[in-house]
């Protein structure tokens, strides 16, 4: 029964994340006349990439648990890293971005789902269903690969196109020094958050074993 509950939860949460990304793509890109540039911009948001990662991490271990991808995505260190990514998505939006956009109607609704609904859904999955006691401390450093690749892409594509997904990374407006400083601050926040999650996981596992 616990396994069935976990699979049901992950199916529902993964469907919410998948549907929200798909509908947002329709509203933002397809409904306004699909272009390659519009698609590249859409998938250049860390929010979108992380929500896709969340959807895949929730659904693949359910639909293909014996696959290599299913085993990989079900590993506690991997799920801990993804939990950190999606927490940053929600926190950065709430602290820095929630009053900067011009989205309205359904676009704003699904923007809120991607920032306020999928983060707690995945964190709850992490709290309830992931064995966290054996997650190594090096997970905090290993998880920086994804944000680092994203940072390189953002700077490279921005240099070529002049477009940046977030105002705190906008090189033409801020200059490279400030943009890189902001990026370094986010990377540091990623590292601290992931280490905190590892610590919380170890404390929860120790508390559970002591009962």
Structural descriptors:
211 residues; mainly alpha
Could you tell me the radius of gyration in angstroms? 18 Å
Structural class: mainly alpha
Cα-to-Cα separation, first versus last residue: 22 Å
Q: Sketch the major β-sheet.
A: none
Helix-strand topology string: HHHHHHHHHH
Mean pLDDT: 93
Large-scale geometry? globular
Oligomer: single chain
Number of helices: 10
Description:
The chain is mostly helical. The chain is built from 10 helices and no strands. Helix 3 runs antiparallel to helix 5 and helix 3 packs across helix 6. The mean pLDDT is 93.
Short précis:
This protein is mostly helical and 211 residues long.
Summarize the topology.
Blueprint (H helix, E strand, L loop, with lengths): L1 H29 L5 H7 L3 H18 L4 H6 L2 H22 L7 H25 L9 H4 L2 H17 L9 H4 L1 H35 L1
Helix pairs in contact: 1-3, 1-6, 3-5, 3-6, 5-6, 5-10
């Amino acid at each position: 029964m616990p396994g069935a509950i976990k699979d049901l939860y992950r199916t529902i949460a993964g469907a919410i994340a998948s549907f929200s990304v798909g509908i947002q793509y329709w509203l933002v890109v397809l409904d306004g006349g699909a272009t390659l540039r519009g698609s590249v911009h859409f998938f250049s948001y860390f929010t979108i990439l992380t929500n896709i990662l969340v959807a895949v991490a929730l659904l693949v271990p359910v639909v293909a648990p014996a696959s290599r991808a299913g085993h990989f995505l079900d590993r506690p260190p991997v799920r801990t890293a993804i939990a950190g990514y999606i927490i940053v998505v929600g926190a950065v939006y709430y602290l820095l971005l929630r009053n900067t956009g011009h989205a309205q109607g359904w676009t704003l609704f699904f923007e809120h789902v991607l920032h306020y609904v999928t983060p707690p859904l995945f964190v709850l999955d992490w709290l309830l269903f992931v064995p966290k006691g054996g997650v190594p401390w090096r997970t905090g450093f290993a998880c920086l690969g994804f944000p680092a690749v994203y940072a390189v892409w953002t700077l490279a594509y921005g240099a070529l196109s002049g477009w940046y997904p977030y105002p705190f990374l906008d090189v033409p407006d801020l200059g490279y020094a400030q943009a890189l400083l902001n990026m370094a601050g986010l990377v540091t926040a990623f590292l601290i958050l992931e280490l905190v999650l590892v610590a919380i996981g170890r404390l929860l596992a120790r508390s559970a074993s002591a009962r």
